[in-house]
User: What shape does this take?
Amino acid sequence: MRYKKLGKTGLKVSELSFGASSLGEEYGPIEPAEGERAVHYAINKGINYFDVAPYYGGTLAETRLGQALVGRRDSIILATKMGRYKVGNAEEFDFSATRVRRSLEESLRHLKTDYIDVYLAHDIEFTHREQIINETLPAMHQLRKEGKVRFVGITGYPLHLLKDVAERAEVDMILTYCRYNLMDTSMDEVLTPLVREKGIGLINASPLHMRVLTEKGAPGWHPAPKRVLEVAQKAAQYCRSKGVDISELAMQFALAHEYVSTTLVGMSKVRHVARNLKMLEAPLDSELLEEILNIIKPVVNICWQEGIPENFDPDAVPQQS
Ligand code: NAD
Assistant: This one.
């Protein structure tokens, strides 16, 4: 396992990291004991960065991850978030300074710890950017001064918004998802140059495009337009005809990024952790990669509208259109 610098934080993160949204059953029911085994297996194999949020499964993912981490918490870098919540089936957004503090206390309790390494404002496209800059981030930095969190960052989908906030406010890292993988590489056009210049840590989440780039395919809630999902299925089929599982190629593609600090993939099964770890070493079939990129070309870099309209990326299309 290689460890890379997370921006200027001084933290060294494993190039492959563990996304815990699946532990919150965001992709359907899981076997909780197997989820816990997956966490332990990942730590034993050198994965040291774990990402979760109160949103995932309406705190279920935090609770399960906290349980799995008992006795091992200090050997890993733990990231959680605030601002986006699930209450029953409803979504709730609250990026206020009071919620920053209250949310942290709740997360500490769920995660059975007394500090968070990486504290992130979750999906900032769901509020006005001025609130993030003038209220949310200052409140998060205050928690840092108090020693409750070590570093502060933002997450989201629209790249232009993330870039704008990173230009105007102090952030240690940015987590972006579904914007650097076989289906979409626009992260490198919009965001990477700025974060590189400023030395901001870059976390690339959802290298499987939220399960699109797997044999199982996209979950029903996936926001991508239909034509994107159809082309992905064609690509998966082509890989299959060559005896390759598309998830392997997708992992290799994402892991090869030079600046990204860590590639964050969602896992709740030991066999997925094992397969993704294997991709750190496996030789890349560049001929197959080229063929797959050609199949995907007609829909590459299609992005969808996410958050409030003022934050949409300029070229974004309606979800599931
Ligand atoms: P992903 O692209 O990582 O896909 C995860 C899905 O693929 C899960 O259903 C998982 O079971 C499956 N999978 C994983 N490895 C596999 C393999 N080798 N073969 C077949 N299937 C495999 O999408 P994700 O989980 O949504 O994103 C990764 C993580 O990044 C999340 O768990 C979360 O922690 C984080 N994330 C954060 C944000 C945000 O902050 N806004 C957004 C998206 C993701």
Remarks:
- Residues 205 and 264 are 4 Å apart (CA to CA).
- The longest helix spans residues 129-145.
- The pocket of nicotinamide-adenine-dinucleotide is lined by residues 19-22, 27, 51, 122-123, 155, 175, 177, 205-211, 214, 247, 264-268, 272, 275-276 (CB under 6 Å).
- The chain has a mean pLDDT of 97.
